[in-house]
Amino acid sequence: MLGNLVPSVQQKVLDQMKKRPKLIVLDTMNFWMDNCWDDLIEALKNVDVLTINDEEAQQLSGEHSLVNAAKKIRKMGPKYLIIKKGEHGAMLFGDDQIFSAPALPLEKVFDPTGAGDSFAGGFVGYLSNEKEISFEKMKTAVIYGSVMASFCVEKFGTERLAEITSKDVLERAQKFVELSSFDI
What we know:
Number of domains: 1
Order of helices and strands: HEHHEHHEEEHHHH
Structural class: alpha/beta
Number of helices: 9
CATH class: Alpha Beta
Largest sheet: 5 strands, mixed
CATH architecture: 3-Layer(aba) Sandwich
Radius of gyration: 16 Å
Distance between the termini: 38 Å
């Protein structure tokens, strides 16, 4: 997981690896797009997953439609793209596949700071226990990322995350299942 750093530093980390890990995830932001474009484009060529928010996806691609933005960004290198949409959930894009996950409706959001990092931690944390990486596994990882982000926003900083148990995480993940399942 290459956190939101200067793209040239992210690339240096990749260059130092003797063996490629089973998955490389990169997080970035609009500041790097504005100030380190060439380095960012170079780093994107070497990652499997890019996580950005909807405004960043539009800026990086020059496209308003998130579907068109995803197509354009994936041509830059990442096999998968996650577009985080804050209180509106997240979208995962792969080869001719799209998964849209809702955000958990919360009565009170105390502090959204760190929600994106918590999402990334939940996403990568889930996948770290999987033997193989697939779009199906990533769908579940997106839910776990959303679960962790939903806990993060309930208190200041890491306070709420420090309180939760594995049982809390599993119960909240089940709420996501209930929120988005239906019969036709």
